[in-house]
Design a protein that fits this description.
Blueprint (H helix, E strand, L loop, with lengths): L2 H19 L3 H7 L3 H4 L1 E4 L2 E4 L7 H13 L2 H9 L14 H5 L7 E2 L2 E2 L1 H20 L12 E5 L6 H10 L7 E5 L4 H8 L7 E6 L6 H18 L7 E5 L2 H6 L7 E3 L16 H7 L1 H20 L6 H15 L4 E7 L6 H13 L17 E4 L10 H6 L6 E8 L5 H20 L17 E8 L2 H22 L10 H14 L9 H10 L1
Parallel strand pairs: 5-6, 5-7, 7-8, 8-9, 10-11, 10-12, 12-13
Antiparallel strand pairs: 1-2, 2-13, 3-4
The structure holds 6-O-phosphono-beta-D-fructofuranose (F6P).
Function: Catalyzes the reversible isomerization of glucose-6-phosphate to fructose-6-phosphate.
GO cellular component, one term: cytosol
EC number: 5.3.1.9
Length: 521
């Protein structure tokens, strides 16, 4: 693999994209009769149909050449070997170690980590069991009935998605989430809860995040107002800075650590998932891990041409770079997966929303697409008009679940019929030469991901699929998918503007910003 090979592969992609822009996806099925089966892949319980993407089978070969020339195989090996793949922060990215079966033997930059991971997992399992059984009780001796999970970004989106996807209809423990520093969210979350029966789980990798600390302080005050100092036994913390959590007043045995080699948006597998492990039960959390671990093994071992994360990344990059499409929609046809789009927004846009390579040179081509979406069928009644007849072509990832978790199978069939129909309508369209308003151009690509049932294993595999897909894209673009320097400037400026609003300082600003500050003051 050389830079020259990679450059030639990008040129081949440009040419393939130009050709793809001139032809119809539906037409490819005539030229390639085995297309549907050749471009449908299965692993770790997931089925991925990429046949409605705009690539020909020859184009898939071009994309696989690009993957090889870009060093995907070596990068994948480095990731699993615990090498320092996050160079700007000098860290490995080893979320796979968190969900690997016991005895996996992962090492981060040469230092064994699986032992520590297993010890923390055992502590989480014991804690979850004690809370659920009532062996661990609150300050007044009553069992816990509710958990308030406080965290933001990666310390929120993954656990929120898992809970929404897997929560029982009548959960033994109520689990509520608070992310925003807008006090309205905490107020809503605390409404109706009894402090004597509530655990407050503060989750922050750094334990310095403004939103999370503000909410954690307010929740601690809420507990103390009702229960006094003894209420600190209701505090739980999850952090890679456990000293800071202890300093906050969290009892030693309720501080759960994780490590700097776990990126925030890849952290739900660590103790960041503790609230879910307690509220869903340990078995479900373990099964989630098992599903992700199965996808890890597949990603690590499967040849590139049968590798789901690699192929999904290549399909997305074909659209992004071959066809210049800057937006992608994600539409899960499962109400329980309605939080998949916001989860993927952070995973993909924080990981790959970069304009310089890992060694600081400008990336010569567009990187991450913007991601948006909502559950189907709801999205059909909101933004699908634009997907079908708008001026931009927006590729869609459709995620469907064959067998529903609950409710009427007839309604589930209607849901699935819509999922399949939308993919068909997007690609085939409907020519109405005499009625421009009713004409559907078609030729709009989609991927179709099918889960058999929305069980923890399948959800774990689905999330791990997108994690690795995001990594592969980062490798193709030559960027570091594991840092997020772009979120820092806003944080710094917010701290200065807070001083201005509170009258503690008069910092200089541009005239527009200054006017807004004055209006608010
Ligand atoms: O938004 C920036 C970010 O650093 C995310 O990457 C992270 O998931 C989130 O803030 C929360 O950070 P922490 O877990 O340290 O509170």
């Amino acid at each position: 693999m050389t830079d020259t090979d990679a450059a030639a592969s990008w040129r081949a992609l440009d040419a393939a994209g130009e050709a793809a822009a001139q032809r119809s996806i539906a037409g490819l099925f005539e030229a390639e009769p085995d297309r549907a089966s050749r471009l449908t892949f299965e692993a770790a319980g997931l089925v991925l149909d990429l046949s409605k993407q705009p690539w020909s089978q020859a184009d898939v070969g071009t994309m696989l050449d690009l993957a090889r020339a870009s060093g995907v195989e070596a990068a994948r090996a480095a990731l699993f070997a615990g090498e320092v793949v996050n160079r700007s922060e000098g860290r490995p990215a080893l979320h796979m170690a968190l969900r690997a079966p016991e005895g996996a033997g992962f090492a981060a930059a040469g230092v064994p980590v699986s032992g520590e991971v297993e010890t923390t997992r055992a502590k989480m399992k014991a804690f979850a069991g004690e809370v659920r059984s009532g062996a661990r009780r609150g300050a007044t001796g009553r069992p816990f009935k509710a958990i308030v999970h406080i965290g933001i970004g990666g310390s929120d989106l993954g656990p929120r998605l898992i809970w929404e996807a897997l929560r029982p209809l009548e959960p033994a423990l109520d689990l509520r989430f608070v992310a925003n520093v807008d006090p309205a969210e905490l107020a809503q979350a605390l409404t109706g809860l009894d402090p004597a029966e509530t655990l407050v789980v503060t989750v922050s990798k750094t334990f310095t995040t403004l939103e999370t600390l503000t909410n954690a302080e307010a929740a601690r005050a809420w507990l103390r107002a009702a229960l006094g100092e003894a209420s600190d036994s209701h505090l739980v913390a999850v952090s890679a800075a456990p000293d800071k959590a202890r300093g906050f007043g969290v009892p030693e045995d309720q501080v759960f650590a994780f490590w700097d080699w776990v990126g925030g948006r890849y952290s739900l597998w660590s103790a960041v998932g503790l609230s879910c492990a307690v509220a869903l039960g340990w078995e479900a959390f373990e099964a989630l891990h098992a599903g992700a671990a199965a996808m890890d093994v597949h990603f690590r071992d499967a040849a590139l041409d049968a590798n789901l994360p690699v192929l999904l990344a290549l399909a997305h990059v074909f659209n992004r770079n071959g066809l210049g499409r800057p937006i992608r929609a994600v539409v899960p046809y499962a109400q329980r997966l309605r939080l998949l789009p916001p989860f993927l927004q952070q995973l993909e846009m924080e990981s790959n929303g970069k304009r310089v390579t890992a060694d600081g040179r400008p990336v010569p081509r567009p990187t991450a697409a913007s991601v948006f979406g909502d559950a189907g069928t709801n999205g059909q009644h909101a933004f699908f008009q634009l997907l079908h007849q708008g001026t931009d072509v927006i590729p869609v990832d459709i995620v469907a679940v064959r067998q529903g978790s609950e409710g009427d199978p007839a309604a589930q069939r209607k849901l699935l019929a819509n999922a399949v129909a939308q993919a068909e309508a997007l690609m085939v369209g409907r020519a109405m030469p005499d009625d421009a308003q009713r004409d559907f151009p078609g030729n709009r690509p989609s991927s179709f991901l099918l889960l058999d049932r929305l069980i923890p294993q399948a959800l774990g595999a689905l999330i791990a699929l997108y994690e690795h897909k995001t990594f592969v894209e980062g490798v193709l673009w030559g960027i570091n998918s594991f840092d997020q320097w772009g979120v820092e400037l806003g944080k710094t400026l917010a701290a200065r503007i807070l001083e201005d609003l509170e009258g503690a300082a008069q910092n200089p600003h541009d005239p527009s910003t200054q006017a807004l500050i004055e209006r608010l003051r």
